[in-house]
Design a protein that fits this description.
The chain is an alpha+beta fold. The protein has six helices and eight strands, in the order E-H-H-H-H-E-E-E-E-E-E-H-E-H. Strands 1-2-3-4 form a four-stranded antiparallel sheet. Strands 5, 6, 7 and 8 form a four-stranded antiparallel sheet that branches.
Length: 219
C-alpha cells in the first residue's frame, strides 16, 4: 500500500517513508468481559436470581412462587447486560488501532471520535497480557512528560493507573503476534508488562526498546 493512499480510519495520508505494519480493532466479546466486566455483572445477577428464588422456598412458599420472584428480576438484568454488550460492540466497531513504522495510532470513540498519535520516541516500554482465547492487551507506558487524561482514553487504558495513565490496545486478536510486531518496530527484544514503579526518574529518558520486569496486572 502506497503511503499516499488514504488508509482505513486514519486521519489522513501518512508522511513519506512511513508505512502501516498492522491495523485491527478489539474483539467485542473479550472487551465486554474484560473492560466492561460483563462476566462479573452476569455472575452478580445470577447470584441475585438464586437468592430471590431461595428466600420464598426457605419461607415455605411453593416453587411456583419462587419462580415468579425470580422472573421479576430477569427483565432489568437482561436489559443491563444487553446495554453493556451493545456499548462494548459499538466501542469495538468504532475503534481502529494502527501500528506504523514510526508510531501507534489509536482512533477511538462511539459518538465523538478522537485520534491519539503515539510516536515511538514517546513510548518508554510496552507490555503484553494474553487471555486464554488468544486475545490480549498491550499497554503502553508513555514518558512522564507525555500524558493523556484517563477518562479520554477509557476503555482503551490500563485499569486503575490514574496517576500515570497508560494507553492500551484492548482485546486485540492474535495479541502475541501483534506484540511481537510491536516489539520489532520498537527495536526491543520482547514485550513484558511495564511496572510504573520501576520507570526512569524525571530527566532520564528511557530507551523505547528496553523492557522492564513484569508486574501484577489488574483488570
Amino acid at each position: 500500500m502506497s503511503p499516499a493512499t488514504p488508509l482505513r480510519r486514519l486521519p489522513g495520508t501518512l508522511p513519506e517513508g512511513e508505512r502501516v505494519l498492522w491495523q485491527g480493532r478489539p474483539d467485542w466479546k473479550t472487551l465486554f468481559a474484560s473492560a466492561f466486566h460483563g462476566r462479573i455483572l452476569g455472575f452478580y445477577f445470577g447470584t441475585l436470581l438464586l437468592i430471590r428464588g431461595a428466600v420464598p422456598i426457605a419461607s415455605g412458599d411453593s416453587p411456583v412462587r419462587a419462580l415468579e420472584a425470580m422472573l421479576w428480576l430477569l427483565p432489568p438484568a437482561g436489559l443491563a447486560l444487553g446495554l453493556l454488550a451493545l456499548i462494548a460492540w459499538l466501542s469495538a466497531r468504532q475503534t481502529c488501532y494502527t501500528i506504523t513504522s514510526h508510531r501507534v495510532i489509536m482512533r477511538v470513540g462511539i459518538v465523538l471520535e478522537i485520534t491519539f498519535n503515539l510516536p515511538f520516541c514517546a513510548i518508554e516500554s510496552a507490555g503484553l497480557r494474553l487471555y486464554g482465547n488468544g486475545r490480549g492487551d498491550l499497554p503502553l507506558m508513555l514518558g512522564r512528560d507525555d500524558r493523556i487524561a484517563y477518562l479520554n482514553l477509557w476503555p482503551h487504558v490500563r485499569p486503575w493507573h490514574l496517576k500515570r495513565p497508560m494507553p492500551m490496545l484492548r482485546a486485540v486478536p492474535e495479541a502475541a503476534e501483534v506484540g511481537a510486531l510491536l516489539s520489532r518496530a520498537l527495536g526491543g527484544p520482547g514485550l513484558t508488562l511495564p511496572a510504573p514503579s520501576q520507570a526512569p526518574s524525571r530527566g532520564q529518558r528511557a530507551n523505547p526498546t528496553s523492557a522492564v520486569p513484569a508486574a501484577p496486572f489488574a483488570s
